């Protein structure tokens, strides 16, 4: 018989076993030790009372790991991973886990629930749809693996815009900062990331980007991973603002490294138009972004 427990009621050994069994043979398998899982749960802001583990008797056979953030005046919960052991898939365990998760969201007064799922995982997407999640967008992983040509993102914008380094917390305070993105691309998950602000000639912020730089053990540039890039909405020079940000963050052009995007929304069409012009293309990985408006618990 399958039972569901809150992660806060489980030992870390049980949670680790549920994680490793749940993601075994998955599209992107991630094997954890107890130590690495504890570190991940803490670093990424998971909430144990909102996360659940499925048991068959005393055996952990699946889990949903969730987090919670207040965005604006709303409580937004995110599903950071759903996994079911191979021999228990397609037997209703995933549905039980998601239903138990949604029950905990309601008890916590969550307003909006979000999740991402790999586009090829059609069965999971169908389940989420049945349980009230709606498709918001596609999430794209694009890349270029060689050096960029000199003017990959177009010519300089005649000195109209400058770039300065910033903290992600400063970017989050901009009036046009976007919080409607997957949880991993929100500033709270990017405290160790690089950030920049694009300013006009009057020193007004008109664009920003947040990204991660990956170095080798020898200190050489291995990868640059873009997590957010936006221009001030409806700005007449939005394309040049984005060009300026992209040219700065993906420099130096002559260095061959892995330049990528991570979970960027496909609806940011202008951004992907510029990336395509610079020779970026799909890495073959794509996700969907889904959300559910939560019903409030009735007050008795």
Explain what this protein looks like in three dimensions.
This protein is α+β, with helices and mostly antiparallel strands and 300 residues long. It has two domains: 131 residues, Gcn5-related N-acetyltransferase (GNAT) (Aminopeptidase, 3-Layer(aba) Sandwich), CATH 3.40.630; 147 residues, Gcn5-related N-acetyltransferase (GNAT) (Aminopeptidase), CATH 3.40.630.30. 24% of the residues lie in helices and 35% in strands. It is built from seven helices and 13 strands. Strands 1, 2, 3, 4, 5, 6, 7, 8, 9, 10, 11, 12 and 13 form a 13-stranded mixed beta sheet that branches. The longest helix is centred in the middle third of the chain and has 15 residues.
SSE blueprint and pairings:
Elements: E1 2-6, H1 12-22, H2 34-43, E2 52-56, E3 59-71, E4 74-84, H3 93-107, E5 112-118, H4 122-130, E6 134-144, E7 162-166, H5 168-172, E8 194-199, E9 205-215, E10 221-231, H6 238-249, E11 258-261, E12 264-265, H7 269-277, E13 281-293
Parallel strand pairs: 4-5, 10-11
Antiparallel strand pairs: 1-2, 2-3, 3-4, 5-13, 6-11, 6-12, 6-13, 7-8, 8-9, 9-10
Kindly provide the name of the CATH class of the largest domain. Alpha Beta
Distance between the termini: 32 Å
Find the count of extended strands (DSSP E, 2+ residues).
13
Enumerate the spans where pLDDT stays under 50 for 5 or more consecutive residues: none
Give the helices and strands as they follow along the chain. EHHEEEHEHEEHEEEHEEHE
- Look at the structure and give the mean pLDDT: 94
Structural class: alpha+beta
Our count of helices gives: 7
Q: Indicate the radius of gyration in whole angstroms.
A: 21 Å
CATH homologous superfamily caption of the largest domain: Gcn5-related N-acetyltransferase (GNAT)
Overall helicity = 10-25%
CATH topology of the largest domain: Aminopeptidase
Q: Sum up the overall morphology in one term.
A: elongated
Strand content: 25-35%
Largest sheet: 13 strands, mixed
């Amino acid at each position: 018989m399958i039972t569901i427990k809150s992660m806060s009621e489980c030992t870390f050994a049980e949670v680790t076993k549920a994680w490793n069994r749940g993601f075994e043979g998955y599209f992107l398998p991630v094997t954890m030790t107890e130590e690495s899982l504890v570190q991940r749960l803490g670093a990424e802001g998971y909430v144990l009372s909102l996360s659940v583990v499925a048991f068959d008797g005393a055996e952990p056979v699946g889990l949903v790991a969730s987090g919670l953030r207040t965005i604006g005046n709303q409580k937004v919960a995110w599903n950071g991973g759903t996994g079911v052991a191979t021999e228990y898939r397609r037997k209703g365990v995933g549905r039980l886990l998601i239903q138990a998760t949604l029950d905990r969201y309601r008890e916590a007064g969550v307003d909006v629930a979000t999740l991402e799922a790999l586009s090829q995982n059609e069965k999971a997407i169908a389940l989420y749809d049945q349980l009230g999640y709606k498709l918001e967008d596609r999430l794209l992983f694009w890349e270029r693996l060689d050096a960029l040509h000199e003017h990959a993102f177009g010519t300089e914008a005649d000195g109209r815009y400058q770039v300065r380094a910033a903290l992600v917390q400063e970017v989050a305070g901009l009036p046009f900062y976007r919080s409607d993105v997957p949880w991993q691309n929100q500033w709270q998950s990017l405290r160790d990331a690089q950030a920049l602000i694009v300013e006009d000639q009057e020193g007004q912020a008109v664009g920003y980007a947040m990204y991660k730089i990956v170095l080798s053990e020898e200190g050489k540039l291995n990868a640059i991973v873009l997590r957010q890039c936006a221009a001030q909405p409806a700005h007449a020079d939005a394309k040049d603002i984005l060009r300026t940000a992209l040219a700065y963050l993906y420099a130096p052009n002559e260095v061959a490294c892995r330049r990528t995007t991570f979970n960027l929304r496909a609806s940011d069409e202008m951004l992907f138009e510029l990336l395509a012009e610079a020779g970026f293309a799909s890495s073959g990985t794509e996700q969907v972004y889904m959300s559910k408006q939560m019903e409030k618990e009735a007050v008795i």
